[in-house]
Write a structure and sequence with these properties.
The chain has about 120 residues and is an all-beta fold. Helices cover about 0% and strands about 55% of the residues. The radius of gyration is 14 Å and the shape is elongated.
């Protein structure tokens, strides 16, 4: 079983910064991608940033230049540094990990979510 534990959310004023962390534990092997999604009230969950193993990092247009994703493979942890936060960044942020070398073995794991609230 795989567990993803997120931390670092909270309340911040517009223009401020937060750093989210997501630590994976359990029987986790062959990680393809680690990333972050978010879901605001009344909206669909959307990709924020994804970091494939050995691949090119992908960011949502709305966060480019403000957010930075990084990974510590030894700790199996992914981070999201969020700067210049805006009220529209308010959402529940979910850690996402994809594992598996083949289509059959591919699995998607989700964290429990952490609330980020940006006040104006």
């Amino acid at each position: 079983q795989v567990q993803l534990v997120e931390s670092g959310g909270g309340l911040v004023q517009a223009g401020g910064s937060l750093r989210l962390s997501c630590a994976a534990s359990g029987s986790i092997f062959n990680i393809n991608t680690m990333g972050w999604y978010r879901q605001a009230p009344g909206k669909q969950r959307e990709l924020v940033a994804a970091m494939p193993t050995g691949g090119i990092t992908n960011y949502a247009d709305s966060v480019k230049g403000r957010f930075t994703i990084s990974r510590d493979n030894a700790k199996i942890t992914v981070y999201l540094q969020m700067n210049s936060l805006k009220p529209e960044d308010t959402a529940v942020y979910y850690c996402n990990v994809e594992t598996g070398l083949t289509a059959i073995s591919r699995r998607i794991w989700w964290g429990q979510g952490t609330q980020v609230t940006v006040s104006s």
